[in-house]
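Friendly challenge for the regulars: who can give me the structure tokens for this chain first? No prize, just bragging rights.
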Amino acid sequence: HYDPSIKKILPHSKMYTIQIGNERFILSGASLSSDAPSYFTNYFSQSANSDQVLFIDRSPRIFQYIYSHLQGYHVEIDDADTFTGLFSDALYYHLPQLRQLILNSDYYYANIGGESIKVSKKLLSGRGNTPNFFTVANDSLYKDISDIITDMNWIRPPPQAAPSLNRSPILFKELVHMLQGAEPEIRSPEHRRSLIKEAKYYRFNALAEKLQNIIEVYNPFTGAQEIAVSLDSIN
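First reply, four minutes later:
Bragging rights claimed.
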């Protein structure tokens, strides 16, 4: 739970300068102590370094998120590459609270067909649709490597890319809409088969079964083929 108290690891009112790449950031001792012990507090706690500029060769764009986090703001992450970069730097800077916030994020992130996808963990945790690709990938890519890096005490985390899939982002979004409760909009038998194939790929087994229970029927009153859904597949 949230604890507003801040340990006095560094003098709270003293300002410290950190240069990340080609950008400088100034943070108070209170901000740096709010997520500690860390790379920063370990450095500035040494008397010889207390008035020095700390130079670090990492991404200033990613550090903007860390800067906001240390100041006490909620950090909103919109894309998979930023999520993965922030996770790597939370490990690099030894920020325990940020690491836990990322691992306990409410969202899964991935690059699907070249498009960044952000989807609610709660949405993908429904009965019959979990475990799935995202639950397994999230644990293996983020949680497991986090534990390994911590245990091995590496100087910096290895290069890491967000989960990337050569699948259709359009079909994935349609599956997500169905998981949100929307009725399937089946345009053709081929479209239905594609949706079933994608649902099975992601291990959305209950959704795949629902799609398999959709049948085409001929309506003699309209003279057209229509989509019908078995009553057994409607929750």
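The first strand starts at residue 15 and ends at 20. The chain has three domains: 1-74, 76-166, 171-235. Your move, everyone else.
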